[in-house]
Design brief:
Layout: H1 2-24, E1 26-33, H2 40-59, E2 67-74, H3 79-91, E3 97-100, H4 104-117, E4 121-123, H5 130-133, E5 138-140, H6 145-159, E6 164-170, H7 173-190, E7 195-202, H8 210-219, E8 223-227, H9 230-242, E9 248-251, H10 258-264, E10 272-275, H11 284-297, H12 303-322, H13 327-335, E11 338-342, E12 345-350, E13 356-357, E14 360-366, E15 369-376, H14 379-382
Parallel strand pairs: 1-2, 1-3, 3-4, 4-5, 6-7, 6-8, 8-9, 9-10
Antiparallel strand pairs: 10-14, 11-12, 12-13, 14-15
Helix pairs in contact: 2-12, 3-4, 6-7, 9-10, 12-13
């Protein structure tokens, strides 16, 4: 009997030790994205882009001698779902860091959790200021909404010489934050050269924009700032052109999607966005990503995917420089990042609040593709 107990003890010890070794074989990084629901196209782009990043890192030998294991869940763009999944990633999956591949609402909800647990999180494209206000373990690789809104206004006033401007915005965190930045620029920098004629907010689920656009048409504006997601801005642009509106239409990263091009069709030509991906960037690693993504997934790459790719690579870079998988040490390394060569441009640094500092790209649609139009480099505009 004693002999049997000894064998059983040895067996259980081996199982336990094997579990420890197995757990240490990989470095786990989490990813939450809206893989279902109205924003599923963005979520899929995020997932596919980060997969390419994981493949690249692991093919090059991994990090600290270990392979990266990506743990992905669908948050459906829902705050409650994101909170539950954040807890699961931390408590069950034992991730060392997190890629935030979702929108502002779920990102705001889960940011305090990562702060409390001292797990660094890099958010790819959530624009609301509360995301990083949750604490110093939260970083934003995408633009703060105010920065992007100011860049859109700069594009309207300085690049397009618009004097009369209408705002048509999604009535949620995303749309309102961008509109605030736009208004701030006009009030501070336009100095009477441009005026916001009207501001109209539409419900998140709106599909028919003709009543809003009819008012704008009567105002005879030079430019329309349409802030919203691709499934909102696509119909706005299509319906505006069908109604004979000739004004410049300016959007932002929410419309940076092949789905926008599909929805707007030929009406997309000449549409302008402020975003953080320049498809005409000549750097080899950018062009390699663009070509690989389109070849593999049979769809044009977009800003959300490139931003999530960069968020993942920022975490990997932090782990390498920290030479550690401990949350506080990774966080310190990410905070010290300088001149990171990302897909979305050279990331100059993060502010003490965790906000990214990098140029804002301005793209326009030509022959069914987003192309370079200009770039916003003014430190006063791009620095949060």
């Amino acid at each position: 009997m004693k002999y049997v107990r000894t064998i059983l003890f040895c067996f259980l010890a081996c199982v336990f030790l094997a579990g420890i070794v197995s757990a240490q074989d990989t470095i786990k990084i989490g990813l939450l994205a809206p893989l279902t629901g109205p924003a599923a196209a963005d979520g899929l782009s995020v997932q596919n882009s980060v997969k390419l990043a994981v493949e690249k890192v692991n093919a090059e030998g991994g990090v600290l001698g270990k392979k990266i294991e990506l743990i992905t869940y669908d948050d459906r763009g829902d705050a409650k779902e994101a909170v539950a999944l954040a807890r699961k990633l931390i408590e069950q999956d034992k991730i060392v860091a997190m890629v935030g591949g979702s929108y502002s609402l779920p990102s705001r909800a889960m940011a305090p959790i990562f702060q409390e647990e001292k797990i660094p999180a890099v958010y790819a494209y959530a624009v609301h200021p509360d995301v990083t206000k949750a604490g110093n373990f939260n970083f934003r690789n995408g633009f703060l909404g105010m920065v992007e809104g100011k860049a859109a206004a700069y594009t309207a006033v300085k690049l397009l010489k618009a004097k009369k401007i209408a705002l048509l915005i999604s009535d949620n965190d995303f749309g309102r934050t961008l509109a605030e930045g736009f208004k701030m620029y006009v009030e501070k920098y336009a100095k009477g050269a441009a005026t916001i004629i009207s501001v109209q907010a539409y419900p998140f689920q709106e599909k028919d924009f003709k009543a809003y656009l009819s008012k704008i048409k009567d105002e005879n504006v030079d430019a329309i700032f349409s802030s919203g997601y691709y499934f909102q801005t696509g119909p706005v642009v299509k319906q505006a052109r069908e109604m004979g509106i000739k004004a410049h239409i300016i959007g932002e990263e929410g419309a940076d999607s092949p789905k926008f091009l599909e929805i707007a069709g030929k009406s997309a030509e000449g549409f302008i966005i402020v975003t953080n991906l320049n498809r005409d960037d000549k750097r080899a690693h950018v062009q390699n990503f663009l070509k690989t993504f389109e070849s593999r997934y049979k769809i044009q790459p977009d800003m959300v995917g490139a931003s999530a790719y960069d968020a993942f690579m920022i975490i990997v870079d932090g782990i390498k420089r920290a030479k550690s998988v401990k949350g506080p040490e990774i966080r310190t390394a990410i905070a010290a990042l300088k001149d990171f060569d990302g897909l979305t441009g050279q990331i100059k640094r993060f502010t003490p609040e965790g906000e990214v500092v990098k140029d804002v790209q301005v793209q326009t649609v030509k022959n069914g593709r987003f192309r370079f139009f200009n770039v916003v480099t003014d430190p006063e505009l791009i620095t949060p």
